[in-house]
Task: structure prediction
Amino acid sequence: MAENGIRIEGLSKRYGSGDRAVDALKSVDMHVEPGEVIGLIGPSGSGKSTLLKCLGAVIEPTAGQMVLGGKTIFDDGWKVGDLRSLRRDHMGFVFQAPYLIPFLDVTDNVALPSMLAGTPNKEARRLATTLLEALDVAHRADAMPSQLSGGEQQRVAIARGLVNQPPVILADEPTAPLDSERALAVIRILNDMARRFETAIIVVTHDEKIIPTFKRIYHIRDGVTYEEEGEGRGFE
Ligand SMILES: Nc1ncnc2c1ncn2[C@@H]1O[C@H](COP(=O)(O)OP(=O)(O)OP(=O)(O)O)[C@@H](O)[C@H]1O
Ligand SMILES: [Mg+2]
Result:
């Protein structure tokens, strides 16, 4: 496999044990090539967030294999010692709720992951500004998160997820609070990002506005995935 893609095989996740056990993922197979943006679609409770959390090394799968950028990160147990630096250096997250840091302004919220990864503050802020411009929120660069609309907060959170140009981006409902034009703008940015930086991107969504943009879609139901060709209009 080329660098930076994602490959998941036979992944399972059981929450709890005994009578209370929930098999959230049963046997998930999935691959995302570098430069590809795939959609992950499924009903509430089907295991979408669980899958992203496993892949993001936020929770530990029960069994199976996860390969990231040619490196096996999980094979019936973690294969990397430092999960925190794996998350910080290799993954960008865009969550359903923006989770911005309330006492930092917009620019610093976006620049922070880059500063934490060792980029000089000035350079990190410059990167942040470029992304804020691309996401059409640069005019709010000095505002505090509480002063932003829901859609603006979401675009800032997306900029933050992209700032370290991670090889993998995991996005859980990134466009839900956005209007049609802005939702499509976000998908366009993710596609540009994927192409320019060979990023592998998984987008969990119910959003009818963006579903037609995916070239490939995985459906998940009761913890099992099925692959489907998308309408594939994409953003060529
Ligand atoms: N921490 C937990 N402990 C026990 N069960 C859990 C836990 N988290 C999730 N589950 C269960 O695992 C299953 C999958 O949940 P998950 O959050 O992955 O679904 P989802 O597809 O993201 O749903 P939604 O679209 O509502 O966000 C559900 O049955 C859920 O109740
Ligand atoms: Mg979820």
